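Q: Structure for this?
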Amino acid sequence: MELSIIKIGGNIIDDETKLAAFLDTFAAVKGKKILVHGGGKLATRVAEGLGIRQQMIDGRRITDAETLKIVAMVYAGTINKNIVAQLQARGCDAIGLSGADGNAILAHKRVHPTIDYGYVGDVDAINSSLLTSLLLLDKTLVFSPITHDGKGQLLNTNADTIAQEIARELSAIFETSLVYSFEKSGVLMNAEDDNSVIPRINAAAYQELKEQQVIFAGMIPKLDNAFTALRSGVGKVIIGRAEELPQLLAGASGTTIVNE
Amino acid sequence: MELSIIKIGGNIIDDETKLAAFLDTFAAVKGKKILVHGGGKLATRVAEGLGIRQQMIDGRRITDAETLKIVAMVYAGTINKNIVAQLQARGCDAIGLSGADGNAILAHKRVHPTIDYGYVGDVDAINSSLLTSLLLLDKTLVFSPITHDGKGQLLNTNADTIAQEIARELSAIFETSLVYSFEKSGVLMNAEDDNSVIPRINAAAYQELKEQQVIFAGMIPKLDNAFTALRSGVGKVIIGRAEELPQLLAGASGTTIVNE
């Protein structure tokens, strides 16, 4: 049975028109599907409104106790429930989940030798039995990037990582495709030229492109994640523009990443 | 199969110690169970922090578009996910839902001849097939008082009403008890004396107590709701203090409301 796992980033969530158009195409995707959404700027706006200062290290939000309250609100509340309501309006039977719901995603608070990331969670386990049960009930799952530690603590977790971990775990049961949608058309030969998409990359080509320094730094964690997923049994990983979701899934757009 | 549906009010949610103690007893309740939680003061605090003025009419929050964003955040995000995480920590396999999730609770925006309540929803349908499937997967359901209209709009709905509507619908499938927990020990003969609990009321006694004006005004909507639920097949309705949940379910505390 085929399963599509699609991650959308903040740039889509922040733009009402883009989000509506994306949800039109997502609702029309055939077969079992899971959407994983990131955060976007709303959390920052709410935090600013409430006078909570946001600290970023290496592009990651430091999640202190007050910030965790905000991201739990915004990600698992506003964003998740609005996406679910909009998918329901499109005839897609969506159910929104955080990692705490049904113990879907168990994580632990990140331990780092020098940086205290606060309430940031690294994933330990995906509850594939729960996810499979819900998918077999014909539900579309919509994940917010909030997890828990099993001891009552919510944690803030990277949405790319959640999508990858779910894909790895469920690839044992489903024929799984993982789509990372973002603001560019795919992996580019020339970061300045959105028409220079590399349609297909395998592990050998990736090694070569990295050595030639063709692939810009920001793509490397995404591609490393993609190859990790492929080595764990995920069928294919596709990187491209959210607006082109049907074409991405058909392999007609974006970059498809394969093992061989 | 027995099903307990328990509604907790804002006074428990606002008090971390009371909430933790309540969740201890709730996690220990045997059999299938559903928790419906109200809002509490956090939504008001967040709205004030963000400079959104709250308007109340007859004790109900008028839910304008900005207020709806706040209640969706706080109820479906912070409160719901924290309760779920804390139940998971107690070995109770909880899953949090709004009415939009899996189209669990369909509602419509309230139409009123003179008052514009804003984005307040009155319940049209409970998705008993979804709820039954999840209960049969041994999940404990935790509902926030957020519903949707099936057209993409989230709505703010009274938690007492949600508990009652779920109880009515599921009483066709389960042997259902409905518990309204609040800040008093039960229905009182003397509103000033918390020891004057009436242990059992049937329809005839209710009529008489109303005529004698023994029952104070604030209890009447709760009791009317309770009798509506009983007439629709709910086995029993219990009103009492959240701190006494095991005693309430055992009929050893609070007021049990029965048809005959």
